[in-house]
Amino acid sequence: MVRLVKHLFAVNPTKIYYRYVIRRQSSSDASKKEIDVRRIRNFSIVAHVDHGKSTLADRLLEITGVIKPGAERAQVLDQLQVERERGITVKAVTASLNYTYNNETYLLNLIDTPGHVDFANEVVRSVTACQGVIMLVDANEGIQAQTVAVHNLAKRNNLVIIPTLNKVDLPRANPDKVKKQLKQVFNIDENSVLSISAKKGWGVPELLQSVIERIPPPAVESEGHFRAHIIDTWHDKYRGVLCLAYIHSGRVQVGQAVKWSSDSKVNTVRHLALLRPDEEAIEEAVAGQVVMVGCGPKGGGGVGEQLLSKELAESGAVTGMPPVKHMVYAGIFPADQSQHAMVSDAIRKLALNDSAVSVSPDSSPALGQGWRIGFLGLLHLEVFTQRLLQEHKAEAILTAPSVPYKVKIKGAKLLKQYRTDVILITNPLQLPDPNNIEEYYEPFVLGTIITPVEFIGAVTTLCIDRRGAPLPSSAVDDQMTMLQFVLPLAEVVVDFHDTLKSITSGFASFDYQDNGFHPSPLVRMDILLNGSLVDELSTIVHASRLEYNARRLTEKLKAMIPRQMVQVAIQAVVGGKVYARETIKAYRKDVTAKLYGGDVTRRKKLLKQQAEGKKKMRSVANIKIPRDTFIDVLKKQ
Ligand SMILES: Nc1nc2c(ncn2[C@@H]2O[C@H](COP(=O)(O)OP(=O)(O)OP(=O)(O)O)[C@@H](O)[C@H]2O)c(=O)[nH]1
């Protein structure tokens, strides 16, 4: 089952959760000594899903003495229930490992980066702490779309890349062919490519030596004021917020006064530890290190923030990290409003651990008080809600997800209100009156697809159908091609990947990266149930898709909403004009049945009451909509 799910999420890999302990390292002395920055190596393992990151991490932990060779459970790193159920890894931390090479002890920080674009933010913040990556490529499957994505990311961040072929033990492995692909696609010198079997451990010690030889130590200012940026945060019941921090300059000690870049309050460092991956308390950490820091229960701090010495914070010389770009927004509401405080607390705690979400208050006539949450993609959204339920027992209703748009506004009043002429729309209901909109902008992505050549036609048709604009393609080798398209994000987030997999028998892989906002003819389409607007079902659609979307949405709602006591009219409307309509017939309840042979005035009274009841339901749109409708209606095609 797990394997099956893994394939379903073939480009939905993620991050690794390194928070288990098998055996403490016997090297605690090393952490008490002053660390020489020249003997620190900060690196990540990056790869397409299933190319062997977790397996290689296991081997590295074995070689450095963290786990015993041949430990029974493989890939012990995935701990969250959601990870086990989905067969994907979702959460990243780090492992600080000691390794002796040429009689010198090195501190190797294995900083995990997630692969899937939904977690791109995590990758970006992780790589800022790395100087190099091990780029794994399955010697049997060859380069896949995500290999291209992680390679580009490493290049953009000027990281040293150690190209490594994995699974060379497999009988079908073809290292020579994949080396040629690496040369063809990335211009990687074939002689620099290492070959390993993470499963058997072949070539792994040599790989570790290459990490030391090829990846430079961090270029940091050992002297000067303490400055660190936060890679990850999580909540500890007793110690409050704990953070994983990469130290850019200076040093930090337990008891030191520090400040968050976002806050004027002075905090004291109370907890300092190396994660090996088990915590190993230390008294001091220096620039170049990745350490766990805690400032006590009220110590605060969030991912992307910086932790600074009090003096540096007060000098005003620090600039912030770039803000996260959210790809998908959805409303989240407590299933039961009496649980609002509990769900609120759960969201706060989870958002602390999942830095990539943005949370703002929201309210809906149908669903009550809730939150509008920004995610990096649909998988991210699903994982977040699943974790809410599993880890915090918080049951929430999710509204239909939508991508953010931008509009250029006109009219003195609006311009004064927003103090800018281009505003970001994260909820279709925020759209100003069309008369006040000068131009609409839609988010686009650069999609990379690697496919066997026989599917080029089918893939191109799919992309064009999704309003994609083709870019020049290039050969990976004589059997595989890399296609690139600029695609509207709205056409990609919902079911693009599933469709691509089905038309290519699972052989094509897909990845995408942000391509910014571009002008686009958009309109807001509303759904009326018996004349009442259902806020949660409003969508922004491309003008060319209006009639199709109107029909599709009303038909799907008809199939999803169960029959009610009253007839339900479902209408898709733009600016007062109805583009599609469906009707769900009412159950007919014979309220006079009990009055067989009774008095006629009594019978009339009951019929009148029933008619009034129906009217009332219409006027308040008291229609029971299954909660999954709000997400499924946009999801399933
Ligand atoms: N034969 C062989 N199988 C391997 C090797 N390395 C990994 N595998 C197998 O490949 C599959 C995927 O390995 P993982 O380590 O989970 O891959 P991953 O890249 O971490 O995958 P995600 O955690 O889902 O991102 C597992 O069944 C491993 O046992 C290898 O060197 N040889």
Automatic annotation (TrEMBL):
It catalyses: GTP + H2O = GDP + phosphate + H(+). GO terms for cellular component: mitochondrial inner membrane; mitochondrial matrix. Keywords: GTP-binding, Hydrolase, Membrane, Mitochondrion, Mitochondrion inner membrane, Nucleotide-binding, Protein biosynthesis. One of its GO terms (biological process) is translation. It is found in: Mitochondrion inner membrane. InterPro entries: EF-4, EFG_III/V, EFG_V-like, LepA_C_sf, LepA_CTD, LepA_IV, P-loop_NTPase, Small_GTP-bd. It holds the Pfam family EFG_C. Residues 38-219 form the Tr-type G domain. It is a peripheral membrane protein. It is an enzyme of class 3 (hydrolase). Coiled coil: none annotated. PROSITE patterns: G_TR_2. CDD domains: LepA, lepA_C. GTP binds at residues 47-54, 112-116, 166-169. It comes from the Eukaryota. GO terms for molecular function: GTP binding; GTPase activity; mitochondrial ribosome binding. Its EC number is 3.6.5.n1. Belongs to the GTP-binding elongation factor family. LepA subfamily. Promotes mitochondrial protein synthesis. May act as a fidelity factor of the translation reaction, by catalyzing a one-codon backward translocation of tRNAs on improperly translocated ribosomes. Binds to mitochondrial ribosomes in a GTP-dependent manner. HAMAP family: LepA. This is Translation factor GUF1 homolog, mitochondrial.
